[in-house]
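Instructor's aside before we start: the two examples that follow are unrelated to each other. I chose them only because their records fit on one page, so don't look for a connection. First example below.
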Amino acid sequence: MGAKVSDWRKLPLSLSELCIETTLRCGQSFRWRKIEDEWHCVLRGRLVSLKQDSSHLHYRVTWPTTASSPRTLPASAPSACLSPPPAKGKDSEEDDTTSLLHNYFALSLSVSSLYKQWAASDTNFARRAPAFTGIRILNQDAWEALVAFICSSNNNISRISSMVQKLCLHYGPYIGTIEGEPFHDFPGPEALAGSQVEANLRQLGFGYRARYIAETAHIVSSVKSPGWLLRLRNPACPALGEATTTIIKSEPVTQDVKPNLTPKPEQTDPPTKPPAEVKQEPEPPAPPPTYRTAHEALLTLPGVGPKVADCVCLMGLGWGEAVPVDTHVWQIAQRDYSLGKGTKSKTFTKTMYDAVGEHFRRIWGPHAGWAQSVLFTANLKAFKGQASNKGDGADGKKGEEEEEGGVVGSEGKSLESATSDHVTGAVKVEDGREEVVTETKTTSRKSRKRKVVAVAQDSGDDKTQVKVAEVEVVTRRTSKRIKYAAR
């Protein structure tokens, strides 16, 4: 397929305002791929390539010049219901890519100024943030964020990226190729709502998440009204690709009434009074969304618990105050802010989840989710070398529950996982699959064993006698167990 490639362009942007090496790797978006020294991802039907120096963000765009090629489907998926891929013409405007990047990276906000505000109100942030400047919250497509974070349940960044890549490869339209690697756009809800999608995704290794994705796609594409996700957006934060804020409202369908031009016959009888016209009152416009209403609406979808809903609110709907609480954030809350200490609860309740978010909102303000992402990144093992000695954790120690590459969901493959399928406080549970936060319990156990030993004794006549004796050996074993509660 032919492609139209633009020249390199650049935006004046310091590393303190945006660091793509950190922002694109810290578990927000899972489609950026680094090839040599450049980052590549499909955004709004174009393949965007990025590289950065100390003063500028450089970008180049690859446009498809013909209709997108058919999507690659698993061999067992002949009847998957797919919507036709959008086609890009040869004369596609490239000038809006600058605006798109401004929107995607939310460059209207000065993140260096926000860092100063957070550091002034939080000594812990002031101590850890200098090693992690330029981390921004990406303003992503809400549908992509929703599906990606459904995949994040009980998962790590590397595996989530692999799943999202499979979704694009098998169901998204092809856009272009970089160094032999094909790039596809993210599939829409219609493409993932077919009757065979769940079975296909299970074959691709999605496990129980396959059902959640297929059911959510069906609900968003066929059950909810058009634009439902968009109506959950923060009105102050335009959707990706929009120049201005657009809120879609449900309005009644009206029809224009044409005048009756047919001549009236002469009336001999007194005219009768026409029946009173019944006027249909228009439905009142829906109230503007809030973070709370958006969060509650997302919780109605399969596979979406409080943490996934907060991830979508923060990174897909523009609600900067959303604070996703997973194992890393809970560890930070306990270790650095003394939250949850002394609690006797063995499970992580909704009350505890809400308390962590409210605590950070009080400290960091309306962009608490942005500040949380800085500390979250500093807590990932993948960035251990970037952190200062004092930024690695309490007394320079890393968090015990971290997995290689960092964990977005509730990892725990190498740790003991709770078997309970419920959490008190009415936190939403999805088949016990999405586990949250931890309880650390240290136990000590005695072990008694009888052992036969040889005992040397002096007989007093310069001879040594060896006797066999049976003794009891007492040992004490101390173990530390980290338990995860299902969410």
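Example two begins here.
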Amino acid sequence: MSSAALPIVAAINAPHSAVVALVGNPNAGKTTLFNRLTGLRAKTANFPGTTVEHRRADVRLDGAAVTLVDLPGLYTLDAVTPDERVARDALTGELPGTPQPAVAMVVVDATNVERSLFLVAQLLELKLPTIVALNMMDDAVRQGLEIDRDELQMRIGCPVIAVSGRTGQGIDDLRRALAVAVADATATEPPAALVKCGACSGCQYAARYDWAQGVTAAAVRGEPALRSARTERIDRVLTHRVVGMACFAAVMALVFTLIFWVAQYPMGWIDGLFSTAGDLAARWLPAGDFQSFVADGVIGGVGGMLIFLPQICLLFFALSLLEDSGYLARAAFVMDRLMHRVGLPGKAFVPLLSAHACAIPAIMSTRVIEDRRDRLATIMVIPLMTCSARVPVYAMVMALLFPHRPLLASAVFVGAYALGIVAALGMAWIFKHSLLKGRTKPLVIELPNYRLPSLRNALLTTYDRAWAFIKNAGTTIMVIALIMWGLATYPKIDADALPPETQAAIAAAEATGDDAAADRLLSQAQLQHSFAGRIGRGIQPAFAPLGFDWRMSIGVVSSLAAREVIVSTLAVLYGIGDDEATDDETGASRSLLEKLQASRRADGGPVFTTATCLSLLVFYVLAMQCLPTQAVTRRETGTWKWPLIQLGYMTVLAYVAALVTYQTAAAAGW
């Protein structure tokens, strides 16, 4: 059968498209199946009036426009967490601004049918048109399970389609069943066995469990291998309190090492591409402000962002594979003991780990933590975890320190991640012993069976996250880069108004026939006279103890909105008026990294010494530098008190740590 994704709808969010909601237990493969159906056409959004994310995609079924919505995973409609409540309200039509789905597609784990049937029973009681997607059929066959689909379909009372989101098995059948259900729109009546005494909830629960057991006994032959012998053997190692921790550290170190080794090649290509594009713009466009705007502002700003995209993609790809394999749940179990020692619940591990992609969804995912104090403590330290926005800064520093030593670069990269983790755990301990005192609840977590990760699913997830980074962060970066170009270009200064020593240097260069050197000296003087130069020199004394020059100081301030902006800011500032921005022999534009490596202070010493690079790295490991994260913290906590505390302690921590780092390294002669 074909595993092709559904055809795309020409007009996204067509006003008359029927909504099909994908719902299922966590670890049932719901998102993998969603990716199989939609391909690269999904987009992420919040439900109206909430901060709960969902993914949706508009597709066509037999010519009809249909919107597929991937709801948060849940075990029951008796919701506990905010995500579960939003998923339930979306299904019942009680969520403001969101129409009730025309069809509910329940994703059932074929290796554990009975557990999923409780949720199926509750959905049938809603009398929505319902389809059951019996997912992971390939795993069920491997485990020796025989599922009578016809019997299952007869007892449930709705279509049951055997599929595998990982391999694409049954996708065409599922498409046809969805098309029929949407066109028919006939309510699915619950089986008679579920219609019991409605006087008490106990009777309803008992009826659902009895029905689930009866259906499973009639339709499924064989016992599900919940814990295979192989899984037990592997878990004895990976969940050991000492060996398991060492394995987790080794896995993360391997991931970061591979990221550096693999990413250095496409990074070099991208860097060279934008350097060449800048040369072409300078050659084809007439000299003047417009040429500088295109070459330094647009090309320099975009290049400064995209050069580090390969590392971000590889990070998302690796995390997706680890999650798909079932390992990340083991990592959460192993980390539970450490979490408790600092006062955080084991459930905090997943938000903290997901913060390595982005702090915003990580903060929203803390809704799985029931205790308010535990949740607040987790929210307060999540921004200390290294997110994807920090990766460009780390990569820039690593490229400056160890341009041809990827193993050493990866070791320092891991150290930066470790510093963020240690700082987060330390601050969590402080919060739980001061402002947020309280007892921490124990961890209860499902350990799914190990599975071979889906390469296709990992690639789709990587594409989705990378595109979100380019679209969301890229807009901010581009705007700020162009603003920085304007600040670095204006106001202009006449050559006659330059300081006498600068005029003398320019005259000397012209006297020797070195017009290029004279132009560079004039451009450098213009930059120092610009708004950016004045601002930078005004704030530079505050950052001088950290080893930052005035251009780096501007970069720090400009990246308050988004930390990754500093790379594009430095690309613009070191590309305008820098006497080392072009190669003396060829006249070609240097790449971003070459410009930074060749930059000099007023005394002739390099700007980016080892001490300065380490100071910059430590500062960005610990600093907040992300206004959207502050906004989400405000929304999740309901007050500005906690975002302001968050901003204050992280700024002080970053400054003091960077100060100690620079002064120590400089004293050692680095």
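Residues 241-432 form one domain.
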